[in-house]
Design a protein that fits this description.
The protein is an alpha/beta fold. 29% of the residues lie in helices and 26% in strands. The protein is built from 19 helices and 30 strands. A hairpin with a 3-residue loop joins strand 25 and strand 26. It starts with a strand and ends with a strand. It comes from Urochloa decumbens.
Length: 723
Amino acid sequence: MEVVALVSGGKDSCFAMMRCFDYGHKVVALANLIPLDDAVDELDSYMYQTVGHQIVVSYAKCMGLPLFRRRIRGSTRDQGLKYNVTAGDEVEDMFALLSAVKQQIPSISAVSSGAIASDYQRLRVESVCSRLGLVSLAYLWKQDQTFLLEEMIRRGIVAITVKVAALGLKPSSHLGKELAELKCHLLRMNESYGINVCGEGGEYETLTLDCPLFRNARIVLDNYEVILHSADSIASVGILHPQAFHLEHKTHPSGTIGDGSITQEISSCVHEVDEVTTQTDVEEKQTLSPAVDAHTNVDPCISKTGKNLRSIGCWIQNRSRASEGLKADLIAVLSRIDNQLKEEGLGWVNVLYVHLYISNMKEFGLANEVYVSFITEKKCYLGVPSRSTIELPLVQVGLGKAYVEVLVSNELKKRVLHVQSISCWAPSCIGPYSQATLYGEILYMAGQLGLDPPTMKLCPGGPTAELELALQNSEAVANAFSCSIYSSAIHFLVYCSAQLTSDEKEEVEQTLQSSYITRLDCSKTGLYPTVLYVFAPDLPKGARVEIKPILYVPTDDGVATNEMETGIMQPAPSQAWSAQYSGLHDSSCQIHTIGGRICSAVVSVTSDIASKICSTAVQLCNTEENLKAMARFCAFQIAKILADNNFSWGSITMLRFYYSVDHSVAADAMSCAFSEAFAELAEDNSSLRIDDAPLYNIVPVSGSGRSACTNNIITCELLASKH
């Protein structure tokens, strides 16, 4: 991509540019924000470093690139973590600056910044990029600061301190010193006082005088003045004011200075950006979205679980109807969910998670176009929901081409992690879907592929390599919530491509065992997480493996209590049901409970179990009687799990029945079998209310099981929680 680099003069923005080149991008322009008054060194800004701005103008000649500058007219008006477009805010100066750059150089598609740890700064850069249709590149984001400092020095960044404001840093001793000279002192101060060695806490600021990207000249500071802002005896604050400097031209191997071309003289000019973008213009640009024609001639089916926290599923079930295509079907499904949310007095802001199932992964781009017209950052002002997308054999079993399940909460108390910047940290989520959503004590993570974060490409090496990298990516996201997939997992879902060979399936399972299961620390959760493999015809980007962990994040006191949910508990199934299935519970169920408040379970109906509960062992799935027997068995196991662990039917937040399409059973036949099974169970259990909408989702798949090498006839996935 062609990139414009936001430069402050500091080491971080310069090293971020170098990382852009490392990953194959081309920096074609520089952008810098400076004070209105040249005599002012530092502004009271939460966003911008301006100390040393008098020298940054020379970067154009040093690098042979055009430099766009704008004087900062705004101030810090919106101080919230997430930025809302605000007239007169200093962020709007960045918007105006980058707008001008994009107009002058239309080929630019990305913006580089040096953000390392500040969510405040990252979110504002991402907001501006989103409004301009640009990609944010933040290759230093969440990187270890000691590693970054050493790499900057090793790779030839020559930067001096131009501000100090921390215990252990003195204006008289440390201003004007090069990073290489200060490295050991900074590391000692980190050990003694916990300062950030890269200055991320405002401990110090730097000015880059030379780096490998300065191909034409380096900057030589001839004279400067130390200005003391605060003479505090513990942590005095001082800045360096440049008074005189010159450029020292670099001689290239050919003996020339710079490249000596006319193009060089033209490209290294400085552009002053003065035009002002009005609030109205910004709002109009931000609210543009694809038009959605919600008209449809179908009535999608819907399912609902639970009470306060619940799943709403929606699909089209009509074998006699010819689908109008993925776009029409997805519009119909999302419109139905939209209406359901409104009927309940809710909106998309209440949605925590979205499972998007489509019939053809080649139409993923089209599905996204429809998706973003319904689910926007404006509607989801507390953060967009996390998401997982896979292809399923929907049409094969008589369903429409789109199937959506959303996790919804009545309460607006979620915490969302949405990093849109491409970085080395974890794969970015550029669209309106987030890496993870925390609600209560449960962290719902988006599906993670084996993507190399800085390039956003699938790693080479096949399914096991993808699984290894997906685990690393998931751990990075978990760490952002102060937890770990190795000590906090409740449930672990592994999506696999149906194209995997038998050997590859074994290798995936062995890799999960060696790289994940054997490393688990169950001291927090008490038990191993439930594990489920689901096979799908295709995954995003042609991936072979995708993982989707659900994690337990304890409250601040870290103690899981055994508070009982108010309301009626689920009574145990009758003796008649229990006697019929005695001896099969342990062999068919994985169960994981935490503190009496969270329950995850996987119930497997294997061919062996089916042969014991069905009247005929031949063609187990091809008779209505056998389908009903297996559905009845699943309903019993769910009821028993809830009763044994003191959960009610209203506590169910997710209940799915995956069934293999290998057995050629239509979705409506499977739905009918489960409908009858739960109706029969309700007659035996007054606490189970049967409404028009089922409390479960029937999901056709290429295969599923507790092992990658087994293919259950039916697999149940349950999550229940008390709030």
